[in-house]
Please model this.
Amino acid sequence: MAGKKLTLLPEWVGQTVTVFGAPTVSYELTNDTPQEVLQLLLEIEHPAVTITTTKRDEHNEG
Amino acid sequence: MPISKYFPTCAKNIPGNSNVIMLAPIGDITSITETTGKVSAITMPTGKKFSRVRAQVDGVQYTSEGTFGTSGAETQNLIADFAGRSTELEKLKQEIIAELPCGVALIHRDNNGKWWMVGANAASKDGVSRPINKLQVAFDSGRAITDEDASKATFTFTRTSAYGPVEFDATLSSGLDAGTAAFVDWT
Model:
């Protein structure tokens, strides 16, 4: 079963970005930036976020 | 891809543009968000903004021309006339030239009240990869004081893209109209 995780690319850590929209919001990007913020950045096609697919093999129990 | 219906309601169409354009280095634009084909958000590093540039009244023109087959692109030009020569205009020119290796994006308003982003769009299109990267400059002093169309400088900004300029949505347009949009330096 595959899961999806949003990851902040390392070169963006420490940067502050402002999304000018309705409303205008600034985000300081850190390794602790919540997934909801990363999801928002993904939705606006911000290049700082990448999707990591995590694969879990439920049948491999030794 | 199906072709959508295009059947607009009848409305006035006013040629020309507002004389104020707004410029930003493309490196200051992180991303453009489009919702139903219109710019609904701009993302920039905190502190970065578009700069306003005032051209002559009736001195801003947008033109485009292109041919498409299995591939293709259009050349897009934003032409701006400025009155006379000045140290400040020369400084502006040099600052724009310095940004051209990476490129610039600009915003202009047509006389139908629509605001347009030229040089940047959603990442699913060109994103920020095909900005305005050419500037043609011209100046004619004229000869006599009666040469009414002379003593003006003309800047022509050019880019080539398969995608046209993107209109701003109603929310961002109202901020631009009101002079309150946070991504513009209004000082």
